[in-house]
Amino acid sequence: MQGYMDYMARHFDLRIDPKKLVPGAKSVITLLINYFPEKFQRADAPKISKYAYSKDYHDVIRAKLNHFFYLLRENIVEINSRGFLDCAPVIDRA
To answer: Are 35 and 61 in contact (CB under 8 A)?
Structure first.
């Protein structure tokens, strides 16, 4: 049910077993972030998706993930981590 995202079918084994993407993985942390932009489009501008007229959300969220991993390492425990957005074959919903 991945629509036109054929890469999801090509890497099904990676989607169902996080250890294949992060060797030794024991836990998965799923985060949700609202990337609703602070600025609004002008009323006379062509309508485009909100995520597309601000900073690239891949860059914004990746920086936030890396900071999150840093905080975990500095304050809780040493971890082997890897952040994924929508650019890896990871199931991001139940």
So the answer is: yes
Total structural domains within the chain: 1
Q: Is residue 92 part of a domain?
A: no
pTM for the whole structure: 0.69
Please report whether residue 93 resides in a domain.
no
Within a domain: 55: yes
Check 17, 56, 59, 86 and give the catalytic one: 86
Residue pLDDT tens, the chain, 94 long: 667 777 767 777 877 787 888 888 888 888 888 877 777 788 898 888 877 777 888 888 899 999 999 999 999 988 888 888 877 777 666 5
Is 44 a known active-site residue?
no
Q: Would 29 be classed as within a structural domain?
A: yes
